[in-house]
Design a protein that fits this description.
homotetramer; Rossmann fold; 8 helices; Isochorismatase-like_sf (chains A, B, C, D); Isochorismatase-like_dom (chains A, B, C, D); Isochorismatase-like domain-containing protein (chains A, B, C, D); signal (chains A, B, C, D)
């Protein structure tokens, strides 16, 4: 009961503060606040996304951004866990499970996108072994040619079960936002893309920053499919 | 009691999902979650910011960004209120009061910054009367040469009680983030600025986007003084 | 004769090094290497631009950028002349005459653009009195609240005979390129603009940088009308 | 004789139009207008660069950008040659020779940089097999997963004799300028870099755009070593 009140309180506060643009993003959450890995759920989410992006006629103007689905994509948190900044009480396997659990759902969302002719963009972080292109507060994690998602190392690979097909685009980024210091905006706009559907991990950072930059860069509809995103706990999706 | 639990739950969820970088930003909130307009409080906040930015020796490397303190700066929400997207139950004078109440606190924060030789940057939105440089989801608000914060109209002026002094910089922006499509990063970096202290209104949008872009752009310390920011309700500061 | 050979040699060298994209830009120059201030000439140039941008049907997808037509727009050179970097032999009134002479031609080009429904964007430099947003190698020109094209001072006004009409956009920039740290790309793309016609002063710096950024930003056709641009001497248009 | 006059005329015109900033760049050319592949020449050029960047004490604040030294780096021109846009009379082996001849000089310049502790950045173009991230006027060159400098294909490799060492940075770009839509500015500024020395191929496009963006982005000294750059013919270096 208390937990329910907590969520409602949080949603109300959010509702008051966000602009109209973000409402359909919120409404989706409001209606389906639970993370589900059910494939059929994912199809239903895509249908909701279809409605949000203006119906079936517009798939050629829609791209799906698949964010950070690397083996260590959610490993940033694990990495941080090993350091001493997160409260020990929170070091639970749940964290990792959340990331792994989302893989089949993302795979399903991508399959639906491919059926509909949506342009699929795989957004991955890759860093130089020196860490020179990492956020400064994370550089201490890099030494001896190692660190999270270093180019060419195993941690930079896509999670098992996810494959980039011909005609799909792999975008390398170095910050939270997929648009920061990358050619993504050019790739999308010259392909006639006006609407985005976003799936992947780490709602509170990477997905949020990508969503806000997409709005700043004039994409018309930006939809987040929440049952194909993961964060440490379900409530984050409601309450980031 | 329930409300207290709601806030705590929200904070815990947040804590789990944010990177270490944002911790000092969070910690400030954790310790002082109430919005205060008391000048002494503001001085104490600046002292906390001093600690966060590495002590008194670094004021010449610190800038204060004063965000959206225009007469209609928080008017976006009012504007939206008149349209039909926000739930009628939330159309309260509180909203506007929140914005107005913050003015003396911001003035005090600026006064402290000036004493310490911190570089003050006044970030304001100004739009073309045509609305051609507004986010697309807001363009419908512009017609007949009028709309929120149109260049040269009264709504674009700073709130009463706030004045730009010689040697301070006025930056015009057109998006949430003060860094988006503006020379702000150049102005700050060529002035030797490494740390930012942020005050102003609209935490969930403008301040958050500015904070995240500042991190992406490698500013070392980014501090938000929460008793000099306003949103519709205090809880937003805890729970955006 | 020798001079003619010099120009030809220069053109050949250029031809070899430029990409296909720039050819129509070059061809225009090749065919009409003389700067003319004749209004009828300007109409003919617009017709050539029409051909270059795909015919009359596309005017709604074309914008005209009018670059740096401020009273001191070409004053940068004058300003520099007073310093000791340009060879004294070159300090001739010709320099200024070049700038002033172009005004009626630009006015004519703008008139033709308006007739055709082309979106007109006035690009002007405006700087903070402190010089904090000027290129670093020019900051020494700013002190006591004065310097070239300071916001609100007379030097920032448009040259006599040029007026911004309702529905046209005034863009403030702080670097050579009109796209650098400005919302220009957003303003143009959300207005459906795909092609650019450029007129104004200072071919070797501001216009060239704007042209190259426009190419990088995926504008399809970029045309420079050379009889409505000015630089210190006609040959610069051939040989920058 | 005529040729000498042509060059002089071109230089004079350039001199008139360029800003003071570019003068040391010009002066180097004025003094050493011939392309040389002699290693000792390269050492002397580095000494000149040392003077330009403020002496030996500043090497830790200087980076060397090595531009487009890929096997097909100058292949863009060859590629274009096979199409029908360049005058047939100019299809000479000289073009390719120019590119190949520069390799030992660049290798020598890099060796000198390493000795001095200058941070070396290897800037390479790499494109998606689909061509989705190429300039639009070049997309027709991409089909069936092939095209110039496609990621993973041989043409994207560095020219023989050039090797990236540990601690050096490889930057992937998709436009002329090394700064366009890349993390280069962040990598350099967070490494404390204030001055740039530039070597490589294709002066009129890639190097020039990179130089101008570096100026716009507030780098203090930008030096181009002309005997380690190549374009189709030596005169281009004087007269672009």
């Amino acid at each position: 009961m208390t937990s329910h009140l907590a969520l409602m309180s949080c949603l109300l506060v959010l509702l008051l503060s966000l602009d109209k643009f973000l409402l359909h993003y919120l409404k989706k959450r409001w209606l389906s606040p639970r993370i589900s890995t059910s494939p059929s759920k994912s199809r239903r989410s895509m249908a909701a996304a279809a409605a949000a992006t203006g119906g079936g006629a517009k798939w050629s103007e829609t791209a799906m951004l698949v964010i950070d689905m690397q083996m260590l994509g959610w490993g940033w948190l694990m990495w941080d866990l090993q350091k001493d900044f997160v409260d020990p009480a929170m070091r639970s396997p749940m964290l990792v499970d959340g990331g792994q659990a989302v893989v089949p759902t993302v795979a399903e969302a991508v399959a639906v996108a491919r059926e509909r002719g949506i342009y699929v963009v795989w957004v991955v972080r890759e860093h130089d072994p020196s860490g020179a292109d990492v956020e400064i507060f994370r550089r201490r994690y890099y030494s001896g040619g190692k660190g999270p998602t270093v180019k060419g190392l195993k941690g930079a690979d896509l999670a098992d079960g996810l494959v980039i097909k011909e005609g799909e685009y792999k975008l390398v980024k170095t910050r939270f936002s997929a648009f920061f210091a990358t050619p993504l905006d050019s790739v999308l706009k010259t392909s006639g893309i006006k609407n985005l559907v976003i799936v992947g991990v780490q709602t509170p950072n990477c997905i949020r920053q990508t969503v806000f930059d997409a709005v700043a860069l004039d994409y018309e509809k930006v939809t987040v499919i929440i049952d194909a995103t993961a964060a440490a706990r379900p409530e984050i999706h409601l309450c980031e």
